[in-house]
Specification:
Elements lengths: L4 E4 L3 E9 L2 E6 L6 E5 L3 H4 L1 E3 L2 H46 L9 H16 L1
Antiparallel strand pairs: 1-2, 1-5, 2-3, 3-4
């Protein structure tokens, strides 16, 4: 893509001077803008347009593929998180069902009643 002519919505005409690791470097004709770096192919969706229609179509298609992949990944992650949350909730419900109720603590009053009852039973 080095040497390809482009038009940017804000910066005007320019030429691709390099492209590496998902970034595209463009040198603009207007000296006040100089060289700028953009994320490729994201920039081709709204800001940068290649003069070569085939290059532009290729860049937009790459962008669409990336967007689709990211959307699918996000949906997959959300589905996994929802499934995990449901499993945790079900486990909590099962745990609550199996949990035996705690025996009430003997208070002084109930201890005295139990002693009286024991004494009465022994007397009989």
């Amino acid at each position: 893509m080095t040497g390809e002519l482009i038009t940017h919505k804000v910066f005007g005409r320019g030429r691709v001077i390099s492209m590496e690791d998902g970034y595209i470097n463009i040198l603009f004709e207007d000296e006040k803008y100089g060289e700028k770096v953009f994320v490729y192919p994201d920039c081709c969706d709204r800001f940068v347009k290649f003069d070569d229609g085939e290059r532009q179509s290729e860049a937009v298609e790459k962008y669409k593929v990336i967007q689709t992949r990211e959307r699918e990944e996000k949906e997959r992650d959300e589905a996994e998180n929802k499934k995990y949350a449901e499993m945790v909730n079900e486990a909590r419900i099962e745990f609550a069902k199996k949990k035996t109720p705690a025996k009430p603590k003997a208070t002084k009053k109930t201890a005295v009643r139990a002693k009286i009852k024991k004494t009465e039973n022994a007397a009989e």
